[in-house]
Amino acid sequence: MGGKVIGSIVNPSKLFARKLWLSPSGWLLGAALISGLVLVSTPLPMTRAAAGSAALTFCFLIFGLKLRHSAQGRANAQALRSLHQVVGHDPDACVLTDQSGVILYANRAAEDRMAAPLGAPLAAALQVHFASPAAVMFRLQRRIAADGFAQEQVVSASGHLRLSAHQMAPDRHLWRLAAVGVGPAFGYSVDGLSLPVVFATPEGHVLYANAALVQLLGLVPERLEQVFATPNPSSGEEVDILAPHGPTRAVVAQGVGPNARREIYLLPPMPDQSAPLPLAEFETVPVPLAKFTAKGQLAVANAAARSLLQMADATGAMFHDLFEGLGRPVADWLDDIVQDRSPTRSEVLRARGLEGEVFLQVTLRRITEGGQRSVLAVLQDATALKTLEAQFVQSQKMQAIGQLAGGVAHDFNNLLTAISGHCDLLLLRHNREDFDYADLVQIHQNANRAAALVNQLLAFSRKQTLKPERLDLADLLSDLAHLLNRLVGEKVQLHLTHAHGLGAIRADKRQLEQVLMNLVVNARDAMPLGGAIKITSQAVSLTAPLARDNATVPVGDYAVIHVADTGTGIAADVLTKIFEPFYTTKKLGEGTGLGLSTAYGIVKQSGGFIFVDSVLGQGTEFHLYFPLHTGPIEAVPPQLARVVLRQGEGVVLLVEDEAPVRAFASRALRLRGYTVLEAATAEDALTTLADPDLHVDLFVTDVVMPGLDGPTWVTRALQDRPHVKVIFMSGYAEEALSETQARIPNSVFLAKPFSLGDLTATVQAQLQ
After folding, report:
1. Measured distance CA(323)–CA(331) in Å, rounded
2. Taking the model in full, what pTM does it have?
3. Whose CA, among 74, 300, 439, 706, lies 20 to 30 Å from 261?
4. What is the 3-state secondary structure (H, E, C) of 129-184?
5. Cβ(103)–Cβ(116) below 8 Å
6. So what's the pLDDT on residue 180?
């Protein structure tokens, strides 16, 4: 009659017996009967009275429970009738269950489509529609407990289904099974394929298995472990299928569906005697497949492969015309597969002839059709993965180069300190009339030039010493205009455009000027026949992060400088290398290759970002992003008067692991009258200070040393000698020490390489 309830099919006598012995009324009836037996069998008046009273009480309780059950039964019946009026003729299958999933009511659609008998588990009725219904119901019931409603989309042989559930009462759930859309799940019915097909979650739970797979396995699988002897097979791999009569070989063709669903198609194995895959099924499999002859000519590609290769008809194309980038001729790889000299493995190759950079993961497998050897290729788009890999490799390379440059610069600063310092000592013993004076000056000047190159390396590695201050870009560019016009010459026109209300940034003025000069000089050199350079500034407010060129600019307000030229442009393969130190496209002697690497390091160390756009033959434009400085206006430090060097007095503990630097510094300080104690390591310095009678006025120490570093040993020494002043020396930037130095009182920083005058002036200032 269109909808049944459980009471209409249960035997009344059995129902009465079950209710009698299993319900509370049954227990009360039993107790009343026992009390009646005691009443008629005992001769004791007191016992008879108690038994009679108990029997009467139990009878009243039974009567009350019967009335309650009767009212509850009428209410349940009324509720089921009301439910039937609402969903009885609903086109979707609707089922009411108790908390354990037993069917209490089923509408007409459920009876027709699900074969849902009353009193049976709903999971058993759903088994004919999709795999693992118990797991789906369990997930939905957990969400129902929290929200009162839940739904989930599943895949069946006939298409997508939506199973939803409402909580009707604390122990009643209404389930609805509805089709999603019209037609097969993926535009065709995979259940009609002769190929075994299985859809599964990324974790391996089977969502759907077509009839061919069920017939092959002899069961409906719930997990992929029931299908494959090898866990997690990859696309293109030949695996064993767990058939009841023994393992059956098949080739896996795997794709990814909605919600990361794994769609696995089992192709026939490819021994010499195997039959070819039917062309119709080969065409409709939603995994890109292609067949190549033994000579590498494309024989056929299915619809998915033609779409991936962006070719209407790729038949006849050669393998090496379609792919490149293996590191050896791809034809050799293809021949290894045909001759069975190499095991099957995947390679990521670049697709030729497509717009942009498109990379494909290609898995090859030898097959034999009609007595002729050929190759089956399974293709997958790997462009996103390859792009991420390239970005990661580039980032790692720049980081490694930066670390190398910083380490080399640090060691060179020690050498240059020794060279320049000993040269200063020699100059003290020679006047301008001496024959060797000019040679010593040349040594000193070239040491300073070497120090400038080292500073550029430190700039790239972001370990140079900066003196950041609050800057107005419009003022800085205006002040720099005259110098830049002299740099570009007469053939090149320079245009500067300033935006109003840019705001202030925080950077080192000298270093920022160096960045702009480097960019302008490079732009001038890219226009040998003349052209125009345009420098503009603008205020940019980012409401969403800007991601490009392996970097992400956070949300915020920025002052942006654009430096554009109309020169020859930069080739795409060169564009990714221009910020690397010593990389240059100029001829020998025309440049060091440190200009752009210096600019890169200075901008990064200032908290900014630098990007470049270039089109070969049309010009290049650099974009420099600097975050606006929102802190308080900093007081400009007063200009210190030039220190007049004079003879000093005091005890200096000099700690330096580089012997030439230590020798120079020790001699320089002794020449000025200071008493110098030397130590090659921090441990030696602490041993020297263990003498309580030793008086020391100043610590002069290197920062980076074997064993304990400078700040660490100084912190320990100041516990017993809190009034000693400190000078830290380093070939790295002061910023690397700033936080530690701030916690050490009476300390200053001296950057390497330093001259004799720099050292003695700093010591004299600390001991005043």
Report:
1. 10
2. 0.36
3. 300
4. CCCCHHHHHHHHHHHHHHHCEEEEEEEECCEEEEEEEEEEECCEEEEEEEECCCCC
5. yes
6. 62
